[in-house]
Amino acid sequence: MISTIGYCQAPLNKVxxxxxxxxxxxxxxxxxxxxxxxxxxxxxxxxxxKAQVYDCAECLIRYKTVKALIKANNAFMRKGFKIKLYDCxxxxxxxxxxxxxxxxxxYVADPSxxxxxxxxxxxxxxxxxxxxxxxxxxxxxDFFGIEASHKYINLPTDVISNRKFLKKVMxxxxxKSFDSEWWHYNLKSALKDPVxxxxxxxx
Length: 203
Ligand SMILES: [Zn+2]
Prior knowledge:
21% of the residues lie in helices and 17% in strands. It has helices spanning 63-78, 92-101, 157-172; strands at residues 26-28, 37-38, 60-62, 81-87, 122-129, 175-178, 181-187. The chain has a five-stranded mixed β-sheet with strand order 2-4-5-7-6, with helices on one face. Helix 1 packs across helix 3. With 203 residues, the protein is of the alpha+beta class. The longest helix is centred in the middle third of the chain and has 16 residues, at 63-78. The protein has one domain: Muramoyl-pentapeptide Carboxypeptidase, domain 2, CATH 3.30.1380. Zinc ion is lined by residues 87, 117, 122, 124, 184. Zinc ion (ZN) binds next to strand 5.
């Protein structure tokens, strides 16, 4: 069995190589559902770092996070929407690389502390309709300004209600929102999971 505890360096994109899937096992979301849309910004240079920091776009997260995400996505789909993912689990080495590019805790979590993305319990998401069209959320992903905050209400009414809809379903599915970033959600139980440096294979 591939270890997912601590700073394991082993590739773990192949679910079949894991003997037993438990809640904290890292798995690839696409192996459990084909109902998600992907726009993994850090696998491109279309992000605030202006740098590609992932070798390829994969959404690895702990199995319990996958289960909660699928629950949320099913609820969104009943209303005509789907989750689009911007970021999932982020290995600690990638966090360090991001920190080297932008060493400011306002924009990048300090790798010495680690973020919930490093623990496999956080996702950055938005909603699209079944045609893939973006649901207006007021700002782009990783917009660093007050307009991205859940507390900022000087926005069009449809944006406010879209953010509320996202938050309501995610919260009901076991996630916690983050005040200053409308796109960030983390599983409530993720904080006690260890930071990881496990990597996925890019084939
Ligand atoms: Zn995030």
